[in-house]
């Protein structure tokens, strides 16, 4: 809405001589927008009197500003769903005063609904459907036509050859509107609604739910079942129906105007046919409803609604809407959440904390950037210092207790949030309460979590601070002091191979030797592979890499900046040393050996090596799955590196693809221009042909680059999945032959990391499903591993 206003102002400003004449209408339009957007917020007057007053103002302005008022009302219906009933009441009052305007508004909403569905804006479309359904309560839309629209929505479940996620969305759109309008529709059209319910029930019974295990935050069903979203909503609506559609939580301002609204003439919705399925449609993915609290967790005050009560759905839905509307402004968002209508009837802090963590842990990815949730929770703690920190501490304690069954991806997000949160509160925490982790195997989830949290806290602080904040009993979990391990630092009894050369290289670097001079010095490093029969023995000299990189990193160990400068300065030497695949792998091994106590340094330097093309993405993947990294395989930083590597590869492909698309677009424009100007002079035509020729050559080159990059991208995923399959198969065979349980901490971590790769990069991996199925995820594969692939495929079925 604000964007539209700015563009309107820009249009007027482009004609300065007309500014005086147009400024007044623009001021009025801005005032109208402000009045409409702010209605329902804190005010000295009651909501009802504000609505009545606003309806009068808008009615008076309809003759001159009808188009603008329509646009604003359609926009708030789509973008401010948390004030849904406020705006439906406003539209109801306007319809009662001006029937034609009501009809135009309904038509505009239907047009907007069609556009949002065609544009894959399904969450906005959902709010529009809900808005239209609530207009039935305001006597704007006739109930039979709403039922007819819902019947058309549910008929999508009968379509053939469509993905399940399509019919899921249309069923969800109907069910999620019923808390608002179910009572009214059942009173007017009970037979048709019963038929609709039977159709929905039949659909829910036959739909497949293979995807559910991949999307659950916890694998355990106790203390709270982790239900699939449609199943949960169906149970809530069924209970609402059983309770004769009585709910006590939706704000319904239109009840106060019933005597006025019931006199209004109603409109019939035009017949609405859902747009046909197309291959480029992107439907919302299914999700699992996050549950952390129930009525027993909120010790005093109002009782928390049960998980199958529709009030729970309404509260959570409204809180999600507030976050969606205000997430960019954390202070506003926190204030809006805490001033939630009806806050005295519910344990609001518990609901807010559960909804925020539900979004943060949503799989495959949260609706907003992770750090937003940290900032929002900090802001909420500042606004409610007497109550919210206690609820947050209780939630953290609960999640710690349930770490054994928590999804590894969610544990990653939890430790990122918790360490960041602690850094804003002087790292204060009752660590002694978690002393139970000290008696467990270090690979178990609890000690592993504490160790990773402390390591992450160290990134946000420094080593001695972490030593000081935790009790001495936790010393085994404190991260190592992040110092380097330079193997050529001091002479040993048995001289290290390359020690003398390391001193020479060190002196040469200190004396500002050039890349060429360093390469000459390195020629004298003996090659331990010389006696091997390996054809590539001459090209790959591990000792040369060790001597040079260990020495270079040692001289630049002072800071990240020093290390970056060193790698940049001797880029040519490093490229020369890593011409072969073994060289690329070995440079990563040496880097790890040198900085093994400083995971953050390893992460940023691997990132730098990829950016400067000293190593490629496949080399990083092979290194992570190599035996040398087995000791750190389940550590957080390793997966941070792998996901960063995959993202870099994906961005590289997108960048070249974008360049290719732009070049094609430019050529098309050139050809269209040529057709239009075909009657012009010959020399212009010659210039045009030259330019076209250059563009065609450029397109050809870019096409080759795209194909090469996509091939590299596909190869990267093949390498990763192949290594996963090898590791997991070895583990399963070993357990089977030894007769031991496969479900070790390592296995849980590894299989969930495989799930994480599929989930976090699902859009890209979808492109290569055929190749993966033919080469790796075949029917012969162990069912434990194949199940993960099948869950992934089911996400968009």
UniProtKB/TrEMBL annotation:
Its main location: cytoplasm. GO terms for molecular function: mRNA binding; RNA cap binding. Residues 665-678 have a biased composition (Basic and acidic residues). Keywords: Coiled coil, Cytoplasm, mRNA capping, mRNA processing, mRNA splicing, mRNA transport, Nonsense-mediated mRNA decay, Nucleus, RNA-mediated gene silencing, Translation regulation, Transport. Residues 679-697 have a biased composition (Acidic residues). It comes from the Eukaryota. It is found in: Cytoplasm; Nucleus. Residues 29-241 form the MIF4G domain. Residues 1-25, 665-701 are annotated as: Disordered. SMART domains: MIF4G (SM00543). Pfam families: MIF4G, MIF4G_like, MIF4G_like_2. GO terms for cellular component: cytoplasm; nuclear cap binding complex; nucleus. One of its GO terms (biological process) is mRNA export from nucleus. PANTHER family: CAP BINDING PROTEIN (PTHR12412), NUCLEAR CAP-BINDING PROTEIN SUBUNIT 1 (PTHR12412:SF2). Belongs to the NCBP1 family. This is Nuclear cap-binding protein subunit 1. It comes from Carassius auratus (Goldfish). The lineage of its organism: Eukaryota, Metazoa, Chordata, Craniata, Vertebrata. The gene is LOC113057649.
């Amino acid at each position: 809405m604000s964007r539209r206003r700015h563009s309107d102002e820009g249009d007027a400003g482009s004609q300065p001589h007309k500014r005086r004449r147009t400024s007044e209408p623009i001021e009025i339009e801005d005032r109208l927008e402000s009045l409409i957007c702010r209605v329902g917020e804190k005010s000295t007057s009651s909501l009802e009197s504000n609505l009545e007053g606003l309806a009068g103002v808008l009615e008076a302005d309809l003759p001159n500003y009808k188009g603008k008022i329509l646009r604003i009302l359609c926009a708030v219906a789509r973008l401010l769903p948390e004030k849904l009933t406020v705006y439906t009441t406003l539209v109801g009052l306007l319809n009662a005063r001006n029937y034609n305007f009501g009809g135009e508004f309904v038509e505009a909403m239907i047009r907007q609904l069609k556009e949002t569905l065609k544009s894959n804006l399904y969450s906005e479309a959902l709010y529009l459907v809900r808005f239209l359904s609530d207009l039935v309560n305001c006597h704007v839309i006739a109930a039979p036509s709403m039922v007819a629209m819902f019947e058309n929505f549910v008929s999508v479940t009968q379509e053939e050859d469509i993905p399940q996620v399509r019919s899921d969305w249309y069923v969800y759109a109907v069910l999620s509107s019923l808390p608002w309008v179910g009572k009214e529709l059942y009173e007017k059209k009970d037979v048709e609604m019963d038929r609709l319910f039977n159709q929905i029930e039949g659909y829910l019974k036959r739909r497949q739910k293979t995807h559910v295990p991949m999307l659950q935050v916890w694998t355990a069903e106790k203390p709270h079942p982790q239900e699939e979203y449609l199943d949960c909503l169906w149970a809530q609506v069924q209970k609402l129906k059983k309770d004769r559609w009585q709910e006590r939580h939706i704000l319904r301002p239109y009840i106060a105007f019933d005597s006025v609204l019931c006199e209004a003439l109603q409109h019939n919705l035009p017949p609405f046919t859902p747009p046909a399925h197309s291959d480029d449609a992107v439907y919302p993915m299914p999700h699992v409803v996050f549950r952390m609290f129930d009525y027993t967790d909120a010790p005093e005050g109002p009782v928390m609604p049960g998980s199958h009560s529709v009030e729970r759905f309404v509260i959570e839905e409204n809180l999600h809407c507030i976050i969606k509307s205000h997430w960019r402004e954390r202070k506003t968002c926190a204030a809006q959440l805490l001033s939630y209508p009806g806050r005295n009837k519910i344990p609001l802090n518990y609901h807010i904390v559960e909804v925020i963590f539900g979004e943060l842990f949503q799989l495959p990815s949260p609706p907003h950037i992770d750090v937003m949730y940290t900032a929002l929770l900090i802001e909420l703690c500042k606004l409610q210092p007497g109550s919210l920190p206690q609820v947050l501490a209780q939630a953290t304690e609960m999640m710690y207790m349930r770490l054994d069954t928590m999804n590894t991806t969610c544990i990653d997000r939890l430790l990122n949030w918790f360490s960041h949160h602690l850094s804003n509160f002087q790292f204060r925490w009752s660590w002694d309460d978690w002393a139970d982790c000290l008696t467990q195997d270090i690979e178990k989830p609890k000690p592993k979590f504490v160790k990773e949290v402390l390591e992450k806290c160290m990134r946000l602080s420094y080593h001695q601070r972490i030593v000081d904040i935790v009790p001495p009993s936790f010393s085994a979990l404190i991260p190592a002091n992040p110092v380097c391990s330079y193997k050529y630092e001091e002479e040993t009894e048995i001289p290290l191979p390359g020690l003398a050369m390391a001193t020479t290289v060190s002196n040469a670097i200190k004396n500002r030797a050039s890349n060429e001079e360093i390469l000459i010095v390195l020629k004298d490093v003996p090659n331990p592979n010389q006696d091997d029969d390996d054809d590539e023995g001459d090209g790959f000299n591990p000792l040369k890499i060790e001597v040079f990189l260990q020495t270079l990193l040692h001289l630049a160990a002072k800071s990240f900046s020093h290390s970056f400068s060193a790698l940049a300065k001797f880029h040519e030497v490093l490229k020369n040393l890593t011409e072969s695949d073994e060289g690329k792998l070995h440079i990563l091994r040496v880097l790890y050996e040198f900085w093994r106590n400083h995971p953050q340094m390893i992460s940023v330097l691997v990132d730098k090596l990829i950016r400067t093309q000293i190593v490629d993405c496949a080399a990083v993947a092979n290194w992570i799955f190599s035996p040398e990294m087995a000791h750190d395989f389940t550590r957080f930083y390793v997966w941070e590196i792998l996901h960063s590597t995959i993202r870099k590869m994906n961005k590289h492909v997108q960048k070249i693809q974008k360049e290719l698309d732009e070049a094609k677009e430019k050529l098309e424009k050139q050809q269209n221009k040529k057709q239009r100007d075909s009657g012009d002079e010959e020399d212009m035509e010659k210039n045009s042909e030259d330019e076209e020729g250059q563009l065609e050559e450029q397109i050809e080159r870019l096409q080759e680059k795209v194909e090469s990059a996509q091939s590299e991208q596909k190869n990267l995923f093949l390498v990763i999945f192949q290594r996963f399959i090898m590791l997991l198969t070895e583990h399963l065979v070993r357990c089977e032959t030894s007769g031991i349980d496969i479900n070790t901490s390592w296995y849980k971590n590894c299989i969930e990391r495989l799930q994480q790769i599929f989930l976090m990069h699902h859009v890209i991996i979808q492109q290569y499903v055929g190749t993966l199925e033919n080469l790796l995820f075949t029917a012969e594969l162990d069912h434990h591993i194949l199940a993960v692939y099948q869950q992934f495929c089911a996400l968009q079925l």
